[in-house]
Specification:
371 residues, alpha/beta, Rossmann fold, 2 domains, seven-stranded parallel β-sheet, six-stranded parallel β-sheet, 14 helices, 13 strands, elongated
């Protein structure tokens, strides 16, 4: 039984956390791994991890933002659990895990390259490349991410984010979901994503205004919480509230159920690796209109499964949305091809197989090297 430790800040709702949980679920189902999940924060949205076989969840809480005691406590925990491989999911956990990995000769995998910004601050780039230099393997979910952070080619690999198709509802009634949120318009354009500095909701709102200037049979719906939500709500005029709905977090139903009511899925963003939201749109058979950049072109085939637009270009975004709203057959064709692309290229099985090959090789190598 190979022992794999996943070190992550928290398991709250988020793209990184979802990717980690889906990997854990896939590895657990294989049966030849013992998975130790160590969280540095008690926030847990994905509570299904507690019920998975051969998965042990621990909490290593930071008392301050930079808590030096965590280094010692994590080393002690690794002595207890004796993992063959440690995977880190962000820069903070990468720094905390490094001394334990080197001292105890544990294989060290950087899985933190999950975005692809156009410009990386110099300090962050320097620290990221320091982690890369010490890692045995660098895993990114997009080729764009490896390029953005100047990852070393000899130890870097791309494993695209995978989706567990069993998560998708087998039958969803969009009218029921629309009724639940009080949406009466026959067409819905939706965007799922956190309200943060990385998501371009102002452009989404401006595109909605342009479309609504041409037609009134559509509602624009945004799903997600975050620090910029109230600021975006303040952008809306009173007369727009019935057509532009910022729902916040929707915890009572799955994202897939919410997406089922969309006719078009949008992602306006500033930086992105492989977007969970876009994958969810495609799984649910929805055509995509998304910002062209980062890892998105690796996921969305422009003109086939969706349309790619320039960053910050509300008019181009509106034009593409209108093209899809005007053509039900085009929406259906793009949605069908998008679902097929996820099934063939972005399945959970492919992701788990990719990580598993790396874990097996590193675990065997480290066990042979230990006295």
């Amino acid at each position: 039984m190979k022992r794999i430790l996943q070190l992550i800040d928290n398991l709250d709702a988020g793209g990184k956390e979802r990717q980690c949980v889906e990997l854990i679920k896939g590895l657990s189902a294989r049966g030849d791994y013992a998975i130790h999940v160590v969280c540095m924060n008690e926030k847990v949205f994905f509570r299904e991890v507690f019920d998975l076989p051969r998965v042990d969840v621990r909490f290593l809480i930071r008392r301050t933002r930079r808590d030096p005691r965590v280094f010692v406590r994590f080393i002690a925990l690794c002595r207890e659990l004796r993992p063959d491989v440690i995977t880190v999911w962000d820069l903070m956990t990468a720094i905390y895990a490094l001394p334990a990995a080197k001292l105890l000769r544990i294989a060290y995998v950087s899985g933190m390259t999950l975005e692809a910004p156009l410009h990386v601050p110099r300090l962050r780039l320097w620290m990221t490349r320091l982690v890369y230099a010490q890692a045995d393997v660098v895993i990114a979910n997009s080729h764009a991410g490896l390029r953005a952070f100047l990852a070393p080619a000899r130890k870097s690999v791309v494993i695209h984010t995978g989706y567990d198709l069993a998560r998708a509802p087998r039958a969803s009634d969009p009218s029921t979901v629309r009724s639940r949120f009080g949406i009466t318009q026959p067409l819905v354009v939706g965007m799922v994503g956190s309200f943060s500095r990385f998501k371009d909701y102002p452009t989404f709102i401006e595109a909605a205004r342009i479309v609504l200037g041409r037609r009134q049979d559509v509602a624009f719906v945004a799903v997600g919480g975050g620090p910029t939500l109230e600021r975006c709500r303040a952008m809306l005029r009173e007369c727009e509230h019935s057509h532009i709905r910022l729902l916040g977090r929707v915890d009572a139903m799955s994202i897939e159920e919410v997406v089922s009511m969309f006719d078009v899925g949008v992602l306006a963003t500033f930086t992105e690796g492989i977007s969970n939201a876009i994958i969810e749109y495609m799984v649910m058979g929805k055509p995509v209109v998304a910002t062209n950049g980062g890892g998105t072109p690796e996921l969305v085939v422009d003109g086939e499964t969706g349309m790619l637009v320039a960053a910050g270009d509300a008019r181009q975004l509106a034009d593409c949305v209108c093209t899809l709203l005007d053509d039900a057959q085009l929406r259906s064709t793009m949605g069908r091809l998008g679902r097929r692309r996820i099934e063939s290229e972005f399945s959970q099985q492919r992701t788990v197989r990719g990580y598993g090959e790396i874990y097996d090789r590193l675990a065997e190598s480290r066990r042979k090297a230990r006295p």
